[in-house]
Write a structure and sequence with these properties.
Length: 362
Amino acid sequence: MGKGQLTAGESREFRDAVTGARIRQVTNHPSIHHHPFFFVPCWDDAMRRLVFVSHRTGSAQLFAEERASGNLVQLTDRDDLAEWSLYPSHDGRHVFFVAGSGAWRLDLETLKEDRLADFGAVEMREKGMVGAAMGTTALSADDKWWAIPVKVGSVSQFHVVDTERGGSTVILERDTIGHPQFHPDDPDLLFYAGPLTNRIWCVTRDGARNWNPYPRIDTTQWITHESWIAGTRELAFVDWPRGMKAVNVDSGAVRDITAFPAWHAIADCRGERIVCDSTFPDRGIHVLPVRGEGAAALLCTPNASNAGSHWGGPFPYNDGPREVYAPQHTHPHPRFSPDGKRVTFTSDASGHAQLYECILAD
């Protein structure tokens, strides 16, 4: 296989054994597959292509399923892809990714790759499998700005790349920067995860303001899996395993969302529903309202292995970082499609991590 090669689609449908929900299996090759991390879309806004990672060639490469034909197309053929860095553009023209120490833009029509920035001889990412070590990136909703944390010795630099002109600007330096996310309605505002003992930070795109809208309350609190709620100035986050809260990043006002032990959780594009997976125990994928008293409703049961035993106990990082075994392709990481009619997730229940969709409506 090679860049640009088309293969027949691997899609098949079945019913969830517990809920009866319609499930579409997208991939079926005996290798690792996964979509981007839960706060990164796998679809463009018009849902022309579903972009994912496949190891079927022997290394991590970008692939896409073309919605019109159902065919799979290999987008990259590299030996240095940072597989969790990918971010499809909202307009469907490009996929952005980090490879080696460069920031790359791939044209989805021609498959031409342009290097927008070169960070030089740097580590790029922290060591490990979780948090800042994953190397996730963020793209603004207007596709003009791409935010990339870069590990440089003992510090992390927050680069913002101009996707039209190329080149990058460092807007912030600090001890750790992970999981950046542009506000869905404001290209001048970003969230990023700081140290595990005080995670929730915001910064303006020009770096002029950097603040902590929700300081951690005490040493037992485990804040994780943050994501914006569209149409608001709220950032949702998991207070593991006690449920979810939301904080207004301007006022600091905090409210409870649910007491359900959500794990990876994110709101839909309208800011109305949250979809989440679960672990310790695995209760399946649930949907719950962003506001109101509605209970979490079981959607489907991925039966993924959910590797990561550290999630089964109290907050483990008060004495600093620790090495954990938590390969991310073993986690479902559910996410609504742009039209809200399906939920994409990953499961290794078959023995290999495959990509799936739970179909809510046609």
